[in-house]
Amino acid sequence: MKLSISLALVVAFTSTTVFVHGGVTTYIIDNTSYPGYVWYDPLDGQKDLIQRTWDQNPHTDPLSSNLTCNYHGTPVPGAFHAPVRAGSTIRTSWNQNSFGWVHTVGPVIAYLASCPGGDCSTIANIADISWFKIAEEGLRKGFALGGPRGLNTRTDYWDVVVPLGLKPGKYMVRHEIINLELAPVLFYPNCAQLEVQGEGESFPADNFLVKFPGAYSTSDPGIAISGKVKQDKFTKNYTVPGPKVWTG
Ligand SMILES: [Cu+2]
């Protein structure tokens, strides 16, 4: 028993040194689990995923092309779209090797973008697609640092509802964690491909739509606060960056 605990600790500490950052590792959609791209494995051999490629390292420049869907952010061979009914929940997990998310200060945000041509895999330039925000949590009024959820704890998972009224089609989903603990700010975006099904007929108006890169600037209050968020008076009035949430 003692030996196995020691071994577990060795594995644990080894893992923390490797997994200092991270991203979305699994999507659970309508009771189906979709494994994510494994950033520490070779790209060769990874296929048939809904998630686009990424790297564990964060991105600091809001104007970088990495802000769209992380480093490379390309579909793997055999990439497909996970079916999801409008109104259903998408559960994303940041778990890796039994560790949850390692950063505890910052918002978690989810966006959707309609894929032109009806196939998210064949978009020539993902910087061109238009995103709308469907959920945001964390560092808002009423959330204190160290609170129960909203990325103030180690986030194992986060649930987001696909707006019930959203019209069917192929969509990219973009989850993002922003680490505000230090300056510069650290962005962790991840993208995956969805096929939204249902009878919805709604789509957000232009004032809800943004581009990545383009949606954020280092002077946005919710980003400029990076490195200073432990001053409680600021965090209680935190403004999540990006457009208003569209609920359908
Ligand atoms: Cu990190």
TrEMBL record:
* Compartments in which it is found: Secreted
The cofactors named for this UniProt entry are:
Cu(2+)
Where in the numbering of this chain does the Auxiliary Activity family 9 catalytic domain appear?
21-227
The cross-references to Gene3D superfamilies, in alphabetical order and at most eight, read: 2.70.50.70
The answer on whether this UniProt entry bears the keyword Disulfide bond reads yes
Q: Which CDD domains match?
A: LPMO_AA9
Q: Which protein are we looking at?
A: AA9 family lytic polysaccharide monooxygenase
Q: What is the lineage of its organism?
A: Eukaryota, Fungi, Dikarya, Ascomycota, Pezizomycotina
